[in-house]
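Dear H.,

Thanks for agreeing to be a second pair of eyes. The structure we're designing against is below in token form, covering all 458 positions.
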């Protein structure tokens, strides 16, 4: 799956590569036509060496001919060629030997510049930038996008530092890298970097989800804000470098704190949404959608918790099992919508009668279960009778009047919840066998299930 941001990033690879190549050709045209401003934009400042422009042209064309689904032989060739040129230049700088004179175009123009006191050469920062971009392009040719992105990020650091130096007026930042070299390097390096937008680090950064959005904002602010702070300080306190450094540290620390706080706010929002979604999922998983009562699963979870509390405190606990009499007849006579309305109204009326601590759940079909903490058998029978009388006196639209049968059981020592519910269920079926519309106390030992189910059909 490719996100819209990734598609847009990939669509920029070829235009940026072509722009970088054409820009570098323009520098070479400056040498050919004798227009110095094209290769030395600042009078007396650094100039772009012809071989540097050739290297950027080759890299730009390599990015232009890149294709995500085809073999990239031209890309590999371009990358390997510039790796060779950059490596030879670094070897020259390290050994003092002359290795590239025979490859250098416009040597007469270079001699003229040297004669007037403005020699032109490829500096170490330009050679390292070219080498990083070339290695990145080779990795792209082999579709090793993680490696390619790492080399591209490193390579882009050189022109960005140079641009910062030009903005601040600090020549040590840009050294022998001309403004034209830095601009061409940014175009070419960005093209090579974006060719891996659908993989690895860039895929995460360009994600449309919150993490990607936060990363993009932090990366943008992480460069723009320190750059702006440094530029303002360079203009205002240039005569006090120590004061400038201290103020810069304080402001950058404040900015980092702001970024951390921003990320924390976003992360908390995400976490809050996750917790809310989890609560909704738990609610949907444990709630009966028709009656909006807890379902059987939720009843056993809550009931187990109450039972453990009863074992610690020794207080009473009782359970009522409730079943609507002849409910199948209501469905068959009036239809299932009426039956659903009966279940909803009964659940609502029962909630009005029950106490706050009582827990009622839909057990299944037309059966409901009520667990009553701090309630002995006599209290449970009294509450059950109150509920039975209220339902018998209530008019249910579409079904007239109906009755319920209830079974009641009080917790016995060392009894588990399933046994307690089974005894209440036995009491319910005893109530049905005795004629319905009544509350029956359950026996201390539940009958065999097969016996009590024999009367369910009645």
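And this is the sequence the design step returned. I haven't edited it by hand at all.
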């Amino acid at each position: 799956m490719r996100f819209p941001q990734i598609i847009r990033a990939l669509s920029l690879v070829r235009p940026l590569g072509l722009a970088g190549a054409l820009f570098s050709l323009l520098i070479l045209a400056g040498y050919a036509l004798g227009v110095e401003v094209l290769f030395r934009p600042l009078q007396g400042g650094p100039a772009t060496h012809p071989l540097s422009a050739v290297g950027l042209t080759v890299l730009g064309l390599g990015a232009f001919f890149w294709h995500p689904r085809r073999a990239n032989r031209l890309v590999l060739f371009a990358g390997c060629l510039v790796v060779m040129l950059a490596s030879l230049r670094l070897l020259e700088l390290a050994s003092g030997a002359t290795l590239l004179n025979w490859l250098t175009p416009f040597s007469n123009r270079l001699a003229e510049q040297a004669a007037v006191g403005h020699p032109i050469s490829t500096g170490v920062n330009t050679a390292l930038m070219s080498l990083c971009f070339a290695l990145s392009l080779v990795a792209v040719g082999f579709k090793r996008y993680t490696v390619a992105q790492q080399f591209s990020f490193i390579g882009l650091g050189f022109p960005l530092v140079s641009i910062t130096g030009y903005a601040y007026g600090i020549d040590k930042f840009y050294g022998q890298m001309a403004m034209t070299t830095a601009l061409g390097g940014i175009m070419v390096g960005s093209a090579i970097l974006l060719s891996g937008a659908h993989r690895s680090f860039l895929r995460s950064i360009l994600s449309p989800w919150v993490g990607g959005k936060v990363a993009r904002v932090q990366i943008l602010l992480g460069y723009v804000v320190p750059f702006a702070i440094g530029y303002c300080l360079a203009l205002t306190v240039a005569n006090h470098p120590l004061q400038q450094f201290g103020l810069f540290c304080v402001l950058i620390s404040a900015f980092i704190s702001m970024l951390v706080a921003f990320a924390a706010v976003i992360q908390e929002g995400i976490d809050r949404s996750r917790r809310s979604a989890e609560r909704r999922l738990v609610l949907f998983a444990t709630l009966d959608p028709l009656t909006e009562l807890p379902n059987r699963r939720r009843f056993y979870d809550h009931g187990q918790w109450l039972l453990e509390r009863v074992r610690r405190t020794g207080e009473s606990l009782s359970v009522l099992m409730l079943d609507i009499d002849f409910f199948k007849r209501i469905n068959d006579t009036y239809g299932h919508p009426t039956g659903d309305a009966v279940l909803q109204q009964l659940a609502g009326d029962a909630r009005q009668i029950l106490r706050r601590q009582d827990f009622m759940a839909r057990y299944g079909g037309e059966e409901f279960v009520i667990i009553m903490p701090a309630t002995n058998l006599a209290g449970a029978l009294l509450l059950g009778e109150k509920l039975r009388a209220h339902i018998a006196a209530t008019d249910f639209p579409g079904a007239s009047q109906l009755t319920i049968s209830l079974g009641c059981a009080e917790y016995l020592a060392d009894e588990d919840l399933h046994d307690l519910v089974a005894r209440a269920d036995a009491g319910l079926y005893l109530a049905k066998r005795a004629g319905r519309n009544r509350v029956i106390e359950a026996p201390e030992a539940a009958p065999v299930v097969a016996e009590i189910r024999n009367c369910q059909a009645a």
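Two observations from my side: Residues 4-207 form one domain. Confidence is low (pLDDT under 50) at residues 448-458.

Warmly,
E.
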